[in-house]
Amino acid sequence: MLLFLPSLNAELTLDPKGRVMVPRALRDALDLQGVSKLVAYANGGPRRGLALCRIEDFQAMQKQHQKGDLMDPRSRLFALAIASTAQTISIDNVGRMLIPPPLRTLLGLERELFLFTAGSWIELWDRARWEAEAYPAAAQMWMTSMASLR
Q1: Homologous superfamily in CATH for domain 8-148
Q2: Phi-psi region at 108: left, alpha or beta (left = phi > 0; alpha = psi -120 to 50)
Q3: Distance of CA 72 to the CA centre of its chain
Q4: What residue ranges in 25-111 does DSSP mark as E strands?
Q5: From the centroid of its chain, how far is CA 7?
Q6: What is the C-alpha to C-alpha distance for residues 131 and 114, in angstroms, rounded to an integer?
Q7: Structural element, H or E, at residue 9
Q8: pLDDT tens digit string along 45-85?
Q9: CA 49, CA 74: separation in Å to the nearest integer?
Q10: How far apart are alpha carbons 138 and 143 in whole angstroms?
Q11: What pLDDT digit, counting tens, does each position of 105-133 carry?
């Protein structure tokens, strides 16, 4: 079953304990699909985004990368970059999720955050870095790819 999420962009605030309130529309969509736990992992290396996915989806990614040769650089990179940072997180009864301290430190998530969804994809970023680096880079890649289709 594919996770279906509403399109969402939200500015969020990390509380002093490292928790963030999950936007109501996202909570409702996850609740409807019986999802109360997600796997969080660093997506793109240090000081990049925090990706969130269902446990089953993460397990499928792991299985795909474990099928290959242990010496395959892609399998090794998956283990080093993704699996090594993966942690299961829960959404509490109030609708908050605790971002584990090691992930907050690795990704530089301090207070002001930006969350977006795209299809079944969820990412959480430091808001200033999203606005200054990630979004402009993604928009530029999009424009370049669209120009090559003409």
Answers
A1: Transcriptional regulator MraZ domain (3.40.1550.20)
A2: left
A3: 25
A4: 37-43, 49-53, 87-90, 96-98
A5: 14
A6: 9
A7: strand 8-13
A8: 677 899 999 999 889 888 877 776 667 777 777 777 788 89
A9: 20
A10: 9
A11: 999 999 999 999 987 889 999 999 888 88
